[in-house]
Amino acid sequence: MEVSIIIPVYNRAAVVPTTLQTVLAQTYRPLQVVLVDNDSTDHSLQVLEQFKQDHNSEDFKVVVTSESHHTAGAARNRGFECATGEWVLFFDSDDLMEQDLVESYVNTITKYQEKGRELDLISAKSTLVFPDGAQRPAPFHRNDLFAQHILHGQLATQRYAVRREFFASTDGWNINLPGWNDWELGLRLLLANPRVAFMGGLSKVIINHNGADSITGTEFHSRQGQWEYVIDIMINEVRCSKLKAKHKRRFERLLEYRRLVLAAQYQREGCPELAKPLCREAYQKLQESYSNNRRWRWFIAPVTRHLFSRIAAGKRGSARIARLLY
């Protein structure tokens, strides 16, 4: 079984070699590695070409291609067009994979096949690294995956493997989203009703949140409006889905909670002029969802206000409350 790893690259000449070494160290073969230069202005393309020259082989095929439309989604779609593996992993150019990551995915696929079950998607554990060097496990849950993804981004770019034919049946990456494109895609993948498994064991992926050089970035207010746009798109996708009405209602509420989280983040970044109107919008939509009933007024509304204050103060754990509350 061939597995394809797709990595978009934009001005990462100084960083991507470390990522590529962790790909080269994978214990599983055959692998196809698809590297997509996204119109870099540094010498990233030359670094990718050199990696291909040094390591391309029969069981470690390296493809280098380019995408001029400058979004990560467009680059990933371009990489997917080149993918030949039965299974695909998307990865970022500044993150790291343990040497047995792909082997662990294949072992999981094989285990299910031996039981007569086929899979479309496998969710894996990962570790987050922060600017101060601190590390902590990314939230990983085996149930309530829709809610966990909305709240925690469990299907972020680096955190799953997907069967190529299943992914091809979706609309792929939204090339027009300025951010949170993996969050939006993860929701659409779930709406396509995949056969899902969860990979056990230790964390296999290191995700870099380590300061300004991280793809993830360090703040939100400078791109105000872009995040809200993604939330609106996702709410519309839930509304247009084939989910039962009660599930649509719940997931819309959780997405409005994420709007509230964004408002609290603006507040925490010292931008109350952005936070207040967004908080009011999220609060009003949640209120309408509950028809301003007694449960909303006496219990959910006060807790919602408390959650906003907690998040704005930098306290953790609010998502666990929100999952139960909404």
Please explain how this structure is put together.
This protein has 326 residues and is α/β, with parallel strands linked by helices. The chain has two domains: 206 residues, Spore Coat Polysaccharide Biosynthesis Protein SpsA, Chain A; 105 residues, no CATH class. The protein is built from twelve helices and eleven strands. The strands form two sheets. It has a seven-stranded mixed beta sheet with strand order 3-2-1-4-9-6-10, sandwiched between helices. It starts with a strand and ends with a helix.
Task: Describe the secondary-structure layout.
Elements: E1 3-9, H1 16-24, E2 31-37, H2 44-55, E3 60-66, H3 72-82, E4 87-90, E5 96-97, H4 101-114, E6 121-123, E7 126-129, E8 135-137, H5 145-152, E9 160-163, H6 164-168, H7 181-191, E10 196-198, E11 205-208, H8 226-239, H9 245-268, H10 272-289, H11 294-312, H12 318-325
Parallel strand pairs: 1-2, 1-4, 2-3, 6-10, 7-11
Antiparallel strand pairs: 4-9, 5-11, 6-9, 7-8
